């Protein structure tokens, strides 16, 4: 299963995070003797653009009950460079897990073309 979450609004950061945590919990509950290795086939990407990129800034006061670093390794955090530029942010200001991509909207289209299911909470 491949899923891409689209986070484009800083005010919805907590909702996006909770959706991801709930999905992970459900996936973990699904893996049992009837579905061995199910978790191994799960890939989750989160594309942050617009002002939502601010949620990935290290030591940000904007964070509300979200610990992006604590998510499992199969969750990839992607920050839009165009949005970073628009917010006057540098990639070295982001948490270590964040990967900078040139364009969030392009990445969303690319991932969907690769079979990722799109979710925008």
UniProtKB/TrEMBL annotation:
InterPro entries: DsrEFH-like, Sulphur_relay_DsrE/F-like. It holds the Pfam family DsrE. It comes from the Bacteria. PANTHER family: BLR3518 PROTEIN (PTHR37691:SF1). This is DsrE family protein.
């Amino acid at each position: 299963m491949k899923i891409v979450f689209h986070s484009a609004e800083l005010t919805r950061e907590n909702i996006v995070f909770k959706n991801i945590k709930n999905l992970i919990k459900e996936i973990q509950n699904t893996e049992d003797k009837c579905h061995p290795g199910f978790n191994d086939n799960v890939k989750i990407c989160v594309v942050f653009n617009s002002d939502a990129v601010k949620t990935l800034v290290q030591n940000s006061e904007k964070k509300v009950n979200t610990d992006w670093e604590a998510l499992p390794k199969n969750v990839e955090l992607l920050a839009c460079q165009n949005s970073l530029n628009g917010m006057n942010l540098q990639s070295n200001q982001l948490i270590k897990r964040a990967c900078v991509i040139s364009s969030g909207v392009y990445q969303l289209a690319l991932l969907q073309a690769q079979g990722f299911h799109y979710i925008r909470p």
